[in-house]
Design goal:
6-stranded parallel beta sheet, single chain, 9 strands, AB_hydrolase_1, globular, hydrolase, 12 helices, about 280 residues, Rossmann fold
Length: about 280
């Protein structure tokens, strides 16, 4: 086989032309072999709410990844809007390219604050059975604004004292009440696992007022759950309409990310198309 190695008599002009040809050949297929379609997809960042954890997004993550989206299911500290938004913002800051923020329940309060001032990076906000507070509003205040929530009847506070002497209370849903309250349309065995692994929220977090509302500057989508016992459906409709969100309603419990991952994924992908 003839060698393709240039001979000593190869001219400088010949080497230059060969180098230019090599450069063009490498550049044509695209960086790292990625297709233009995948390169254009935004990263989906999922923020869970109170009484849940990142695993509540598992069904949604699986479907989004199947569609080619990069996904991050962030851990929400559940300590308060300011604290939790700062943490989520640090996650977003470490992601290259456009981002779509998705919040479930209290996670909606968090994304509304975390995305403020990030309009060039956060291209869409998606609220799944979630709070869309305005500045000066709290999650608890919005819940109490309309009738329908039975959460106050089934929660149990657990008081704690920190090493520095600080005190507070975390709030749980009583395990025996969890399925009816939070996940009525989730299979009983799965609901029991969710109840055992629920993440408590600081009681003070539900009363802490938001300081900003990113939905005023960033396009929003909302999935309203009509069989929700945590956030009254009237509250969800009010907040969604006020934010001029693209709104869809579904007959599902508050745990819609678990019971109806297909429906949730469709809403997220609709929002993600605006970020390309």
């Amino acid at each position: 086989m003839r060698s393709t190695r240039p001979s000593r008599r190869t001219t400088l002009a010949g080497l230059t032309a060969l180098a230019a040809l090599s450069t063009v050949t490498v550049a044509l297929p695209g960086a790292a072999g990625a297709s233009p379609r995948h390169k254009a997809l935004p990263t989906i960042v999922l923020e869970h709410g109170a009484f849940a954890d990142a695993a509540s997004w598992d069904g949604v993550v699986k479907r989004l990844q199947r569609s080619g989206y990069p996904v991050v299911a962030a851990a929400n500290p559940l300590r308060g809007p300011a604290n939790d938004a700062a943490y989520l913002r640090s996650v977003v800051d470490h992601i290259d390219g456009p981002v779509v923020l998705v919040g479930h329940s209290y996670g909606g309060t968090v994304i509304s604050q975390a995305a403020a001032g990030l309009e060039d990076k956060v291209k869409a906000l998606v609220y799944i059975a979630a709070f869309l507070p305005d500045a000066g509003e709290s999650s608890l205040g919005l819940t109490d604004k309309f009738p329908g929530s039975t959460l106050g009847q089934v929660i149990e506070p657990v008081n704690y004292t920190l090493p520095d002497g600080g005190q507070g209370a975390d709030v749980y849903i009583k395990p025996e009440k969890f399925r009816k309250q939070f996940a009525a349309d989730v299979p009983a065995d799965k609901a029991r696992l969710m109840a055992a692994g629920q993440r408590p929220v600081a009681a003070a977090a539900l009363e802490e007022k938001s300081t900003t509302a990113a939905w005023k500057a960033i396009p929003s989508w909302s999935l309203v759950t009509t069989k929700d016992r945590n956030i009254p459906v009237a509250a969800q409709r009010f907040m969604s309409a006020r934010a001029h969100a693209h709104t869809t309603e579904i007959d599902a419990s508050h745990a819609v990310t678990v019971s109806r991952p297909d429906a949730v994924t469709r809403i997220v992908e609709k929002a993600a198309r605006t970020a390309r």
